[in-house]
Amino acid sequence: MSPQHHPAEEFLLQYASGAATEPFALLVAAHLAECAECRATVAQAEAIGGALLDDLAPETASAAALDGDVERILARAARQPQADLPPPDSALAAPLRAYLSDFDSVAWRSLGPGIQHCVLAQDPHGAVARLLRIAPGRGVFAHSHGGNEMTLVLAGSYRSGGTQFRPGDVECADEETTHRPVADPGETCICLAVTDAPLRFRNLLGRLMQPFIRI
Questions:
Q1: Range of the domain at 118
Q2: Which residue would you say has higher pLDDT here, 85 or 40?
Q3: Rounded to whole angstroms, how far apart are CA atoms 206 and 5?
Q4: Which has the closest alpha carbon to 127: 55, 207, 212, 27?
Q5: Which of 34, 74, 164, 207 is most enclosed, with most CB atoms within 10 A?
Q6: Which of helix, strand or coil describes residue 34?
């Protein structure tokens, strides 16, 4: 089944332009390994960016000329072949294989009963990419966000705000989002989560634990 939930367009465009830092680039790349729709979006953005560089004029162009250029660039991008990679043969998408060989080899650390994590990548601006392993029926404490949070499901599934997220799906959250993800019964849920600011836990226990778990 193709993913039903995708990264916000701004993150796809940052990835296509090369502006995404390692944590966000890793998550987007892992999603692209399973999502033909987002691969097409990234391919078109890359084609438009390349065409813009090719068409740069040495002198400032008029507004009418720029409009014509954009129309030609969009038409050219539409003719570009779209990458259509085969789906991965396991939950460990190709971009993740540079970080770990399999989920059993991960140096998991406890975040509480039934929940473990492992940091994979960080950037100088505070963004962190980490694996989460959540036992069936277990959930992360209810929280809001100090910035962006993106969660890609790699195995199993979970529900958040009445929506189910399955392998390949991405949940996007920001300062306006409050949620409590809970793993579905039956199978351990493994996710790749990226945050660029600390979470804001809604309960006292979560706030007391935060200095120790650093999430």
A1: 94-213
A2: 40
A3: 28
A4: 27
A5: 34
A6: coil
